[in-house]
Write a sequence for this structure.
């Protein structure tokens, strides 16, 4: 699990740990990321790997890769990890690298999604869990959740409404992957068992 800050999605994963999966390690690119304390409190190894300790991005990402492998990670989850990973890292963890993004992709890739959603006047906003590809906030969509945008919404109110849904869809998506219920086919996420109707891209 990679993060940069608050770690509320990490907390949702820690709270949802199941028979088929656990959180092997939490790694942050910032030393004082509050999420690291959440991992420690839950008895999960927590590690900070600051960018300034490395000469270039390749060495920095190698350190992340090594930490994840040493911890025995099978899947890497980006939850509030505020860096764009290089194509080498993405290829190493291809279809084993998942991101949660606070918008209904492909709308509002990048930062400030709630502010931009309000400015665009959309009626619905939400979040997306997806497999990561080299392009920013792109890749096969695993699960999305939509929330209504209210006429009197502030950025903070909308963000809180979306975040509550993030905490629901992220553990659900991780559970599907851990249980082998989904796979990627032609850059689309499909149910591993065509009869499995509960694996639905939208909740
Ligand atoms: C979440 O909104 C996530 O979608 C985005 O960054 C935020 C991280 O929040 N990528 P937290 O650190 O999990 O609380």
């Amino acid at each position: 699990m990679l993060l940069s800050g608050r770690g509320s999605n990490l907390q949702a994963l820690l709270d949802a740990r199941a028979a088929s999966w656990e959180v092997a390690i939490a790694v942050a690119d910032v030393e004082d990321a509050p999420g690291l304390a959440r991992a420690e409190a839950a008895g999960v190894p927590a590690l900070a790997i600051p960018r300034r300790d490395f000469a270039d991005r390749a060495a920095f990402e190698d350190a992340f890769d090594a930490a994840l492998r040493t911890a025995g990670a099978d899947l890497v989850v980006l939850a509030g990890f505020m860096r764009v990973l290089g194509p080498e890292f993405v290829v190493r963890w291809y279809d084993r690298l998942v991101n949660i993004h606070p918008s209904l992709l492909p709308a509002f890739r990048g930062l400030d999604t709630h502010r931009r959603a309000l400015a665009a006047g959309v009626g619905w906003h939400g979040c997306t869990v997806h497999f990561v590809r080299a392009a920013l906030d792109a890749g096969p969509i695993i699960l999305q959740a939509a929330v209504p945008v209210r006429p009197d919404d502030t950025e903070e109110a909308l963000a809180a409404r979306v975040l509550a849904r993030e905490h629901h869809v992220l553990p659900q998506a991780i559970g599907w992957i851990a249980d082998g219920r989904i796979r990627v086919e032609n850059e689309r996420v499909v149910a591993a068992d065509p009869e499995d109707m509960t694996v639905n891209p939208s909740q």
